[in-house]
Design a protein that fits this description.
- The complex is a heterodimer of chains A (239) and B (267).
- Chain A has helices at 2-20, 23-57, 63-81, 84-99, 105-131, 134-142, 147-177, 189-200, 204-232.
- Chain A is mostly helical and 239 residues long.
- In chain B, helix 3 runs antiparallel to helix 4.
- The two termini of chain B are 32 Å apart.
- At the A-B interface, helix 6 and helix 7 of A face helix 2, strand 6, helix 3 and helix 5 of B.
Chain lengths: 239, 267
């Protein structure tokens, strides 16, 4: 009973910091940044990943596709071969000053997360493209569309439908990975709750609430993906 | 119309087509028959370079399609192709399947026209009217509806291909090829993947096209159909055209043993 009373006291202190001392501003900012980094990262990742995947499945009779393929392989090898924390640190503390980029910590995080996720999405997308019947591309080429047009209009939309559950996975991983952006001084959900905890050196409740928020976020994303899948599956339904 | 000159296709050490030289004239309806593995489909697919020939040339209206420098996409627009597995675009409705390529191509052309019109206007020259996106779309959709009416599937315009039967899919695939106003149609075993009861409707449609004077090349196992529709029949075996002639010559008076043997098995 004593423990429970202590918890209630801590809970009250947390609520006090959260609401009366304006802690919710941090939480809202953290939440916004977490989602912003994950969403922008995923969009960038899908763009980069799609391009890489299309280069990888290109016919390789000519020199250019072979060279591009090598470049893409190197890209994927680098981004899958190093921890994302290292990429973030190198990107923010080494490349950003060296290249003279005027990027905020938040902007750098979006960029690095996008590039990192691009490497993973490229492999997912390649699997998706390979899962589409080659006859689809053939039919597109047979009516006179170019390789890239046929890929973008016919093959990639079908590939995306096939890999949507896996892309959802990638998005969830991104949301959770954002908890490392404090390494370069960006404010995310974790940083927000650390601030709140630091207020009276009481971390139990803030971190518990933080965990709950992450879980709710992930559950909401899962639901969103389900709904998207259902709407994309309308071409399979018989009616 | 199509001159095939010394066409050879190899996959590694396997020779699928062995120095074929042949001319297909406008208005001809060619049926290609032969045992499986004889190179029938490969020959057909080489005609529009779906398979790149190892050597030799395909002269289509004065252009060598086998030349890698030729923009093959432009020439393929004049050669409709129908596949054994239909290959309708799964992510598009029936109507979009038919309009996709004509519309994309028309839009690209109109963008180019608008670009030149813009500069002409700057220079104070008279500019022709360029059709808008909506006009082109309406035009191509009207054309697609005419085609759908012709194949008797107008009420299926807005459904996805997965809801169609095999025969309906193949008819839509034929309409899709026809929407490009091709000069020649290539059929790659158009009825081989169909249930027997659906073969008739597809063959009937191909017969109508033939009656309209469309030049066509058909790889088929339907001997009765080949005999009835074709103006010339190729018998292929071992990567060469072993024997060719009118349907009467091929089916009633086969000369070479290989063809006699083949016909005794299939008829």
């Amino acid at each position: 009973m004593d423990g429970f009373a202590r918890f209630i006291k801590k809970w009250d202190a947390f609520l006090h910091t959260l609401i009366d001392d304006g802690g919710y501003n941090w939480v809202l900012e953290g939440l916004r940044n977490t989602l912003l980094i994950a969403v922008v990262g995923l969009i960038l990742g899908i763009l980069i990943g799609t391009v890489i995947a299309m280069v990888e499945v290109m016919p390789k009779y000519k020199r250019l596709p072979r060279v591009l393929n090598k470049v893409c392989h190197a890209y994927v090898a680098f981004f899958r071969g190093t921890p994302i924390v290292v990429q973030l640190l190198v990107g923010y503390f080494v490349l950003r000053p060296m290249l003279g980029l005027n990027l905020s910590a938040l902007g750098s995080c979006m960029l690095i997360f996008g590039m990192n996720s691009g490497a993973y999405v490229s492999e997912i997308m390649r699997g998706g493209i390979n899962s589409v019947d080659p006859g689809q591309l053939e039919a597109g080429r047979a009516v006179g569309l170019g390789y890239w047009t046929a890929m973008l209009k016919i093959v990639v939309p079908q590939a995306v439908k096939n890999i949507l559950p896996t892309i959802g996975n990638e998005f969830i991983a991104l949301v959770k990975d954002t908890s490392i952006v404090s390494f370069v001084g960006a404010t995310d959900l974790y940083v927000a709750f650390k601030y709140i905890g630091t207020n009276n050196y009481e971390f139990m409740v803030p971190y518990l609430v933080m965990a709950l928020i992450y879980i709710v976020l992930v559950l909401l994303i899962t639901l969103g993906i389900r709904l998207m899948e259902r709407s994309l599956n309308k071409s399979d339904r018989r009616h | 119309m199509i001159d095939v000159i010394d066409l050879t296709k190899r996959y590694g050490s396997l020779t699928v087509l062995d120095h074929i030289t042949e001319t297909i004239h406008e208005g001809e309806r060619i049926a290609i028959i032969g045992p499986s593995g004889s190179g029938k489909s490969t020959f057909l697919r080489c005609l529009n370079c779906m398979e790149d020939p190892t050597s030799g040339s395909i002269i289509f209206e004065g252009t060598d399609l086998a030349d890698m420098k030729v923009n093959i996409n432009i020439h393929r627009r004049h050669m409709g192709m129908v596949f054994q597995q239909f290959n309708l675009f799964h992510n598009k409705t029936v109507l979009d399947n038919i309009t996709l390529a004509p519309l994309l191509i028309a839009l690209r052309a109109s963008r180019r026209q608008r670009f030149t019109a813009f500069w002409k206007r700057l220079l104070g020259k008279p500019t022709p009217d360029v059709k808008t996106h909506a006009q082109l779309k309406a035009e191509k959709e009207a054309q697609a509806h005419t085609l759908l009416r012709r194949i008797g599937l107008e009420e299926k315009a807005s459904v996805y291909p997965s809801t169609l039967s095999g025969g309906q899919k193949q008819r839509v695939a034929i309409a899709r090829a026809m929407a490009m106003n091709p000069k020649v149609m290539l059929f790659d075993e158009p009825t081989s993947a169909l249930d027997p009861e659906m073969v008739g409707e597809v063959l009937e449609l191909i017969r109508q096209l033939a009656d309209d004077g469309m030049t066509m090349v058909i790889v088929t196992h339907e001997m009765g159909f080949a005999r009835e529709v074709a103006s010339r029949v190729f018998f292929m075996a071992g990567g060469v055209i072993m024997e060719q002639g009118t349907p009467e010559e091929i089916f009633d008076h086969p000369k070479c043993d290989r063809l006699q043997d083949f016909l005794s098995k299939v008829i």
